[in-house]
Amino acid sequence: MPTIPLPPLTGHLAARRRLSQANRRGKLPQVLLLTGPAGVGKQRLALWLAQLSVCEQPADEPCGVCRACRLVAGLAHPDVHWYVPIARPKAADPDKQVEEAGQCIAQVMNDRRGEPLYPAVDGMATHSLACVRLLQREAALTAVEGGRRVFIVGEADRLIAQEASQEAANALLKLLEEPPAGSLFVLTTVEPRRLLATMRSRAVPVRLGRLSDAEVSAFLKAHLKPALSTRDLEQRVGRAEGSIGTALWSGEEAGK
Hints:
Helix content: 40-55%
Distance between the termini: 20 Å
Number of strands: 5
Largest sheet: 5 strands, parallel
Strand order of the largest sheet: 2-3-4-1-5
Radius of gyration: 18 Å
Shape: globular
Order of helices and strands: HEHHEHHEHEHEHHH
Low-confidence stretches: 252-256
Structural class: alpha/beta
């Protein structure tokens, strides 16, 4: 499957400025919690921050053209790890469960390299204990490229499964309490209250608002194929209420 680079990040200029300034001063917190409505680009901002963290020509924005930036845009940087909710592993052996989780996440990333406007994950998908153990193993390794390592946990509220088990969340909390040197953890969620209070206390919150209709419209014009008619575009933007994800989900396409 050919690799299609991630679309450019849309909006959130104020948050980007604050994060960029903190990064430039060496004051970027090691654990961040990005919150905001569904589909406004929380995970995309986390990937933008990953680019900024590993960029070979750091400035107010990632350069987008250096090797490191291109690797992140292609979801292929060895020191940028993106964890998304997946189906619970079926294996009985704990080590086999971790292996299965790694294979599943790798497949998701491969799918997103081919279609960056990815669909919403299945409602039953979670961050299981096996996923957290996989993260712990990777966090214990040294950086392949010798710089910062970035760990993104998308939809982190799914650390607590429907049966209200907190095992995975508690395991991740231990890592966040003493993050390895040179690491950056970025958690995203629509509803931070679904996370453990102790986990929220370890993270610096960054709240993202809804995008403007103009920003949503410009994104759809640039990236949605086939192009919509003027009327369909206006209707799609109107229903989106500032969410690119909603604008995409409301049609036959899906994305976030």
